[in-house]
């Protein structure tokens, strides 16, 4: 049936509407499904970025510490705490010295240095200081005993052959043990170190057959300076006392507290200094004994023989801090100190 004009116009309007809907659908599809634009290129930078620091390798040990030892003064201070050093008094006597007064304690035919653990095997000895000394003494037993010394802290043991006058034992009434910085140059005195704890020394020659260079002791008369000193007994006038001086060596080898002959680990100084074999200067022990005897020397004898066999044994049991403080305050500074370790 032919379309009337009015109907054709309605069909045309409907077709245009359908075409508009289709166009809108295409546009929407383009909006939602269009592939994304490629990203813009980023310009290449010429700056170099440092990598993060590497973690420490905990399996690798740190470099070894320097092997240079600390100074002797530092070592001593670390091992032995000392009291603060006092200033030198204006009236101090400038002599490198401290002392111990150690009266006689007992006598025995023992010698714990030369003949250890052999009771009764020695000639008779007179002992001073430590009250317990016998053939079995060692540093442990001595450190637990008492002492006649002033100061009481000195638990060292000192002994000598017994003096016989007309066959009878006579003990000294004056028993002073000086610790000295003399006999070496001042610069050596300044670096003197404490006597090591447990050190054992024998000075003199108990087996001497004549007064020779092994005779380190001297005999003289108290208050009778006109009588010359001698390696053998001397004739002291009435009213005086015969006295014995004995100097111990003051240079240590730095390692041994004793030696097979009880002497080789020590040495006397040479030309004011310690020899290279014994490089460590220590205080010189001087033993001064005064006996209530005088007159004809033919009536005198030591348990070891003639006067030139005089010898001394020393077993150091000074507490380390006490010895170190006296060396620092009295010896190194060249100041005369009393038994209390003070000027």
From TrEMBL:
TM spans (from-to): none
Chain spans, region Disordered: 40-73
Coiled-coil zones: none
Domain DUF1996 residues, every copy: 111-318
Pfam family, one: DUF1996
Sequence ranges of Pro residues compositional bias: 50-72
Signal peptide: 1-30
Keywords linked to the UniProt accession: Signal
Protein name per Swiss-Prot or TrEMBL: DUF1996 domain-containing protein
Organism of this sequence: Lentzea albida
């Amino acid at each position: 049936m032919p379309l009337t004009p009015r109907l054709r116009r309605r069909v045309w309007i409907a077709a245009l509407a359908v075409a508009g809907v289709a166009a809108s659908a295409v546009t929407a599809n383009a909006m939602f499904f269009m592939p994304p634009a490629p990203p813009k290129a980023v310009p290449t930078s010429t700056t170099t970025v440092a990598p993060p620091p590497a973690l420490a390798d905990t399996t690798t040990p740190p470099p070894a510490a320097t092997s240079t030892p600390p100074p002797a003064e530092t070592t001593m201070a670390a091992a032995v705490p000392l009291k603060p050093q006092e200033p030198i008094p204006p009236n101090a006597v400038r002599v490198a010295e401290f002392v111990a007064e150690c009266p006689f304690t007992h006598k025995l035919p023992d010698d714990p240095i030369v003949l250890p653990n052999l009771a009764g095997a020695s000639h008779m000895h007179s002992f001073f200081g430590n009250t317990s000394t016998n053939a079995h003494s060692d540093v442990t037993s001595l450190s637990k005993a008492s002492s006649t010394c002033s100061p009481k802290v000195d638990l060292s043991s000192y002994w000598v052959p017994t003096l016989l006058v007309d066959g009878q034992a006579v003990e000294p009434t004056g028993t002073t043990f000086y610790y000295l910085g003399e006999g070496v140059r001042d610069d050596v005195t300044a670096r003197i170190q404490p006597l090591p704890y447990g050190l054992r020394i024998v000075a003199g020659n108990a087996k001497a057959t004549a007064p020779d260079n092994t005779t380190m002791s001297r005999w003289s008369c108290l208050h009778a300076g006109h009588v010359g000193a001698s390696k053998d007994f001397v004739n002291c006038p009435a009213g005086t006392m015969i006295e014995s001086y004995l100097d111990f060596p003051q240079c240590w080898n730095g390692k041994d507290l004793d030696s097979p002959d009880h002497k080789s680990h020590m040495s006397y100084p040479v030309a004011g200094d310690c020899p290279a074999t014994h490089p460590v200067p220590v205080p010189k022990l001087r033993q001064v004994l005064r006996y209530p005897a005088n007159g004809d020397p033919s009536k005198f004898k030591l348990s070891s023989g003639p006067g030139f066999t005089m010898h001394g044994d020393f077993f150091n049991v000074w507490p380390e801090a006490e010895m170190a403080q006296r060396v620092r305050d009295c010896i190194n500074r060249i100041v005369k100190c009393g038994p209390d370790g003070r000027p």
